[in-house]
Amino acid sequence: xxxxxxxxxxxxxxxxxxxxxxxxxxxxxxxxxxxxxxxxxxxxxxxxxxxxxxxxxxxxxxxxxxxxxxxxxxxxxxxxxxxxxxxxxxxxxxxxxxxxxxxxxxxxxxxxxxxxxxxxxxxxxxxxxxxxxxxxxxxxxxxxxxxxxxxxxxxxxxxxxxxxxxxxxxxxxxxxxxxxxxxxxxxxxxxxxxxxxxxxxxxxxxxxxxxxxxxxxxxxxxxxxxxxxxxxxxxxxxxxxxxxxxxxxxxxxxxxxxxxxxxxxxx
Amino acid sequence: xxxxxxxxxxxxxxxxxxxxxxxxxxxxxxxxxxxxxxxxxxxxxxxxxxxxxxxxxxxxxxxxxxxxxxxxxxxxxxxxxxxxxxxxxxxxxxxxxxxxxxxxxxxxxxxxxxxxxxxxxxxxxxxxxxxxxxxxxxxxxxxxxxxxxxxxxxxxxxxxxxxxxxxxxxxxxxxxxxxxxxxxxxxxxxxxxxxxxxxxxxxxxxxxxxxxxxxxxxxxxxxxxxxxxxxxxxxxxxxxxxxxxxxxxxxxxxxxxxxxxxxxxxxxxxxxxxxxxxxxxxxxxxxxxxxxxxxxxxxxxxxxxx
Lengths: 267, 306
Hints:
The structure holds two protein chains of two kinds.
Chain A: H1 11-25, E1 34-39, E2 43-46, E3 53-62, E4 75-81, E5 84-95, E6 98-111, E7 114-118, H2 122-125, H3 128-134, H4 138-141, H5 154-167, E8 171-174, E9 179-181, E10 185-192, E11 199-209, E12 212-225, H6 227-238, H7 240-266
Helix pairs in contact in A: 6-7
Chain B: E1 2-5, E2 10-13, H1 14-31, H2 36-45, H3 50-74, H4 80-107, H5 110-140, E3 162-165, E4 170-173, H6 175-191, H7 196-206, H8 211-237, H9 242-265, H10 268-291, E5 298-301
Antiparallel strand pairs in B: 1-2, 3-4
């Protein structure tokens, strides 16, 4: 996992972004208590050598113009949520000495990826009600109430979902990951893992004060397969017979070609 | 170097994949075994979804048997008639296996079924190879080996629907070869193997075929059944990963050529015993996964995906 500072490679993109932001700030200006943000890239291509991708999220906030007693500090929460998909969660139990899937709970729509990056631990900067309303922490984002299945204790299944996906780094909690500079500029580096699902990754940036959301800004990262990967995947699903015959032809050609080549080398 | 596999939808190390293909190819070249029964479990171990491992494993079987089939056809050591009967059984068995695969996937029990099948069959072939290897080792230390009977008549030969198999010199019922072919077809679809390890002993001991046509005829059946199963898996469950197959095949064909050369130079008996022990070890490893309490009792599947 990368640090939260700018890596060297990202500097040009980040600088360009900051300039853009400043020009946006100057003429029209942000109203008090507003947040605006941007991403170093909003397209991620899954190509043959894809091994994860680092995204720089940055932006600016504007404070209330009033010069009275210093208000409570602003905090920032960034949520990246991957495309939702249905899941089945299975529980194993011992039957006849072997461990077998015995019970399952289905959930119609849970995020394939969910990362929460904050300037301070979430429980210290956001009230539980606001957390639930905006579905910020992953425990709310998966909407545990939608779990259906003929089991005694569905909550143990939804907890297992969180536990497993936290371990595979599909669900991330990144406390103190957002760096806030002079209470105006913020930035965070979030690493997207290698096993990404295709689709839109909504990125929400919340400006928070006194445990409540003051303002939010939304954007998205689009993840899609590219090149050969995309072509093969589409062929496999759209024209499976052609794909199957292609797999067969390649196997025959490679198997026959290799032995012919070796025979040639030996003679 | 990490490679993103478009169908498995996971990244895997390219060198690991080449290594698995090459290592199994080396063994298959040295011992004349197909190797599908080692590739598929090794793919499980590195985290390839079982459905993709099975379907891609069977694709790899096509590549590893083509040169053998051509060589045997050239040498006319294939009983085409027997091969066709075995093949008809194989295609029926493969269709049944594909159906069973989809049914078990929907029930959430496919991983268990595949693992159980591997424990049982790897256990059996491991023990058979060990016994064979030990016997061969023992035999080489004796000057006059006892002669085996040319062929024996078994009750299965007297079932109805008799047919003449001239190349094998047999006049037997078609039911036993059909059943053998069918079993092999089911295993190909469920386990991603060629099935030679079941078919070759069955042809020798059950059907009483002469050993010189056994390997060619079994390869003839295997390549068609594996080809059919590959296409069926691609059509019904979209689980053949061409990218994964390509790495396994490239590693495999090179490994097999090196293995063939090595096999000519090395003393085979002791190596055969080592291979048997390796097969048994894989079987025990999978069995332990089923028997020991897993660290995580819960698992996640995504309906409609592997």
